[in-house]
Amino acid sequence: MFPECGGVTDQTIAQQTRVTGLVNTARNSVGCQWLAGGGILGPHFSFTWYRGSPIGRERKTEELSRANVNDITIGGHNGFIAQGADPMLGNSLCEVGIQFDDDFFEWSISFSDKPFPDPCDIAKDLARQTIANAK
Amino acid sequence: MKSLQRALATSVAILAAVTMSTSCSRSVTGTAQKEGAGEGSSGQDSAKTYPNLLKECDVLTNDVLAKTVGADPLDIQSTFVGAVCRWQALNPGGLIDITRFWFERGSLDEETQVAQHLGYKIDNKSIAGVKSIIMHPNDPNGSCGVASDAGGVVGWWVNPQVPGIDACTMASKLMELTLATNS
Predict the structure, then answer these.
(1) C or N terminus of chain A, fewer CB within 10 Å?
(2) Which pTM does this prediction carry?
(3) Domain residues for B148?
């Protein structure tokens, strides 16, 4: 089992993304979503815990919609890493999905304005933290 | 499967002005495939019993969602799609985030265990005759979730960004509509 938000604090999200004024707008049993000023404009960062859901279906969707989808292993757990490109921003989106027993979780990092840190570095690091926080 | 890349050039003004455009200008990735498709027979059973479930994120139309949480139908926007869907709606009291989940291979027992693990207060309740739980986190804004024993397990969360909104009534109403046995 994971803690709320995969055990990642609002402060960690702010530090990693370097976005100020983020609000955790949907903290609940399936995940958390951080939005700038609490509104839908701007960057989107989220953690989602899929219980009893096949990761393969999610990966297939990513393969159809993202520029790159590759295998990844973090802390001995397998999954995918999907990178998305925006014509104006470049590689501004990254999603990491990790199988965990019968479940999987996904970190989604999407920036809306330059400059921004590498979204895949953030998604991978948050996935590492989530795995470490599992009980 | 995030959604909605930043959207709507106009939206800042819009949000401020309280007249958000509905149309998702950019659509999103996410699991378009119906839950249940190709996943064994349970999906088909669910489809027969709860025709609204198979509409995925569209299980309830945006109009119905907005009305249930006291927002204008123009003031709701999808932010995430798939087995978990998220929306944001503008109630006169403030912004409300709505989450719907459907875990076809999940169970109400598992959701109860997760809610206990997360330290939520749990009430048992029957919604539309279906065994359900109401989940109350210790949240000053009064966020509230409901999960029901249908098609695996289906749930709704209402997370207001301000206090004073009756999130449990809203979440229960959304579930009642979801479990309607006719579409």
Answers:
(1) C
(2) 0.83
(3) 11-178
